[in-house]
Specification:
Layout: E1 4-9, H1 24-27, E2 31-33, E3 38-42, H2 49-59, E4 86-90, E5 97-102, H3 106-116, H4 121-128, H5 137-148, E6 153-158, H6 166-181, E7 185-189, E8 202-207, E9 210-213, H7 220-230, H8 232-238
Parallel strand pairs: 3-7, 3-8, 5-6, 6-7
Antiparallel strand pairs: 1-2, 1-4, 8-9
This protein binds adenosine-5'-triphosphate and magnesium ion.
Magnesium ion (MG) binds next to helix 2.
């Protein structure tokens, strides 16, 4: 199921030399199509992935710092004004569930969940499997997806791998498949060649020219990781570490 079909940048950004318009990928973004249930946004550090998916999350009605539609906490107003310039083209279907997961503010999301369910811990345990503060970072991430995500959802993740071991990333892939089978759409910014291997996903690479579709095995993340695994001693030596 696809809930967001397209993102359009409706205001010309030429000449605006301030964040976020000074990020080349954002300045050159006109429209972006979402054709598959799972879309990855990849690219170098600082290329504009978080700025873009945060604006998409806000336009979808989700809390900029993470969480659901019903979360309205904000600890630091740091989101960009890009959401004012983007328009989402939506399908006729409306998602029944939604969550914006960003690692940077995951702690605050866990705090908000404890606060919201302060007087009803039974409900919190039912929806979230317990207090996320009582789990490790990776455990809490997987617990949230397992217990809280119910399907028919729009799920937007920013670098989920930063909490997850390689095994846990494989677990997340299986959880994603179960949710896709229950009519969900994922939009994920990532550096992880493991997550990017999700079958039949679209991978957009953020470049200075804009966002370009890439085949999994042609991405730098895949090729560099493969080369490193096969030639780790040589690469470490080339870096002058031996
Ligand atoms: N609040 C802000 N004010 C000014 N510049 C910002 C702000 N947030 C991010 N930037 C700049 O915008 C650019 C894009 O940042 P963004 O966080 O979107 O990158 P990213 O692709 O998500 O990087 P990473 O892979 O490191 O998470 C960076 O050069 C960053 O320094
Ligand atoms: Mg980022």
């Amino acid at each position: 199921m696809i809930y967001i079909n397209q993102v359009k940048n409706v205001k010309p950004v030429e000449g605006r030399n301030i964040y976020p318009y000074n990020i080349p990928s954002i300045a050159n973004l006109r429209e972006l199509e979402f054709r598959k249930s799972v879309t990855f946004i990849i690219g170098e550090n600082g290329s504009g992935k978080s700025t873009l998916i945060e604006a998409i999350a806000i336009n979808s009605g989700l809390n900029p710092e993470g969480g659901t539609r019903n979360f309205n906490f904000n600890t630091q107003e740091s989101h960009s004004c890009l959401f004012n310039d983007l328009r989402l083209v939506r399908s006729a279907y409306r998602e029944k569930d939604g969550f914006f997961l960003r690692t940077e503010s995951f702690y605050n999301v866990a705090t908000e969940i404890d606060k919201v369910f302060q007087l009803d811990k039974y409900k919190r345990d039912l929806y979230y499997g317990g207090s996320l503060h009582e789990c490790s970072h990776g455990e809490s991430f997987l617990a949230l997806v397992k217990n809280r995500f119910s399907g028919k959802g729009l799920y937007i993740f920013d670098e989920p791998e930063s909490a997850l071991s390689i095994n846990s990333q494989l677990t997340l892939l299986v959880m994603m498949k179960n949710l896709v089978d229950k009519d969900s759409q994922f939009i994920i910014a990532t550096h992880s060649p493991i997550l990017m291997a999700y079958p039949d996903a679209d991978i957009y690479c953020v470049t200075d020219q804009g966002l370009q579709l890439a085949a999994y095995e042609k991405t730098e993340q895949y090729m560099l990781m493969k080369y490193f695994i096969n030639n780790h001693k040589k690469m470490i030596a080339d870096l002058g570490l031996l």
